[in-house]
Amino acid sequence: MVCMVAVGALFLLPSEGLGQRPERFIRGGNRLYGKGEHAAAEKEYWKALNADSTSVKGRFNLADAQYEQKKYAQAQRFYEGLATAPGGSPATQAASWYNLGNALFKQNKLPECVEAYKQALKLQPKDEDARYNLSEALRRLQKQQGQNKDQNNQNQDQKDKDKNKDQQNQNQQNQNQNKDQSQEQKDQGKDQKDRDKQNQQEQNREQGNQQEQNSQAHQQQGQMSQEDAAQLLKALERQEADTQDKVQKQKAKATRSKSRTNKDW
């Protein structure tokens, strides 16, 4: 378990030139903090900062009171400012880096937490609490990375399964689509065959009708020819009768002429 002990920030930090009035609020906050009344202590530290916004002790102790109330993100901001402030004392900066590591650890920000503990150890290499917390943070980070890797592998496996399933579904859809297209083509072929058959039947009927009409036309032509032949025959008969009449008349004339010639006048 990480050692989350604050570095005696409430009483060990120097006043660093604070005026009397903010010190009075800080002392009141310290008494409340010692009783475990962290919310009330925070209010006193805020009063100290209202009196002197540059108070290092006021900001540090305010961050501690917020940390104890599990306001880790708010405490983090104060610790970061104190740890990186130019011209700050090494003791204040080391304590700020250490407490910053604790606040980050509570938020499960393990990579940043590891760096904060390293910075604390650079300033105070003999800080066993910082060394212990660093090893614990590293162990947690490695475990988290392993879990993330396993989770990523599981996610990738699931993605592959989903992809394969999607591909199978797509293949099935393609097969169904091809089957539908094949059936549609068969239906279209059948419809075309039926239409061709119907057209052929229609053509046959039309040809039959045409043939019948032609036959009737031929019959009508034949009947007209017979009538023409009868009329021609009658004309020939009349012509023949006329010819016979002429022949008879000529014969009669010849007889009369001959008699006249042989007559004894």
What would the keywords be for this entry?
mainly alpha; Serine Threonine Protein Phosphatase 5, Tetratricopeptide repeat; 85% helix
Plain-language structure description:
- The protein has 265 residues and is mainly alpha-helical.
- The chain has a domain at 9-148: Tetratricopeptide repeat domain (Serine Threonine Protein Phosphatase 5, Tetratricopeptide repeat, Alpha Horseshoe), CATH 1.25.40.10.
- It contains 8 helices and no strands.
- Helix 6 (90-106) packs antiparallel against helix 7.
- It is rod-shaped, with a radius of gyration of 64 Å.
Look at the structure and give the mean pLDDT: 81
By CATH's scheme, which homologous superfamily of one domain applies?
Tetratricopeptide repeat domain
Report low-confidence residues grouped into runs of 5 or more. Answer: 8-19, 254-265
Order of helices and strands: HHHHHHHH
Strand content: under 5%
User: Could you give a short account of the major beta sheet?
Assistant: none
The number of helical elements comes to: 8
How many β strands by DSSP? 0
CATH architecture of one domain: Alpha Horseshoe
Helix content: over 70%
Structural class: mainly alpha
Pfam families: TPR_1, TPR_16
Keywords: Repeat, TPR repeat
Give me the secondary-structure topology.
Elements: H1 9-12, H2 20-34, H3 38-51, H4 56-68, H5 72-84, H6 90-106, H7 110-123, H8 128-262
Helix pairs in contact: 2-3, 2-4, 3-4, 4-5, 5-6, 6-7, 7-8
Write a compact overview of the structure shown.
The protein is mostly helical. It is about 85% helix and about 0% strand. The protein has eight helices and no strands.
